[in-house]
Specification:
The protein has 199 residues and is of the alpha/beta class. The protein has helices at residues 2-18, 23-28, 52-57, 64-75, 101-118, 128-134, 140-143, 165-170, 172-183, 185-198, and strands spanning 36-37, 43-47, 84-87, 122-126, 148-152, 155-162.
Length: 199
């Protein structure tokens, strides 16, 4: 099963190369950073774009933000190998600038395909860049930590927007908010499982 999912994800990566998505980003990035983790995960985390370390190693969230993410997972009784982590934009923007709306729009269809293959119970968006694509018009300061159901085509997804771990590293008061929000996630997943069993 996982092998089949892996080959489907590899096809998406090949497609991104073939269609030359965001050529300006591609030429200055070391590599495409597709994602990392458990292909049968209940939780998929989505950040905005790879940073310098991620670009070099080809793995998302391995710098300071990734370390904090690992700490949050541990606090909730999980490990990185239990979840899947990716970004909307799969190439590092130069000088770690924010990804542009055009870059996010170009990669969006591929992200949706990734989610269809992995089929998680919950998608956790990290920061406003990934949140605003799933939940347009919402402000992260008001929506963080609350589960929202959204439908894409015939696909229903539960989205939980969280602050980006990088923001919490710069702002100590956000750190506890982010941990508190994240600790609610296992019970939200439990609720989801109960709901689907009763439907």
């Amino acid at each position: 099963m996982s092998l089949d999912k892996q080959s489907q994800l590899d096809r998406i990566a090949a497609d991104i190369h073939k269609k030359n998505i965001c050529p300006d980003l591609a030429t200055q990035a070391t590599q495409l950073v597709m994602g990392d983790g458990n292909l049968n995960a209940d939780i998929v985390f989505i950040g905005e774009a790879p940073g310098k370390n991620e670009d070099i190693q080809g793995v998302p969230f391995i710098g300071a933000s990734g370390k904090f993410l690992n700490e949050m997972l541990a606090a909730a009784g999980m490990e990185r190998k239990d979840v899947y982590i990716t970004n909307i934009v799969k190439y590092r923007p130069p000088n770690n600038r924010d990804p542009s709306p055009q870059e996010k729009a170009a990669f969006w269809p591929y992200l949706l395909k990734q989610l269809q293959i992995i089929d998680p119970k919950v998608v956790i968006t990290l920061g406003r860049h990934s949140m605003e694509y799933f939940l347009p018009g919402l402000k992260i300061g008001e929506a963080h930590g609350e589960a929202k159901r959204v439908t894409f085509g015939d696909h229903k997804i539960v989205i939980i927007p969280l602050f980006h771990p990088a923001a919490a590293l710069y702002n100590g008061s956000l750190r506890q908010t982010l941990i508190d929000d994240f600790l609610k996630v296992p019970s939200i997943i439990e609720e989801m499982k109960n709901l689907s069993e009763h439907n």
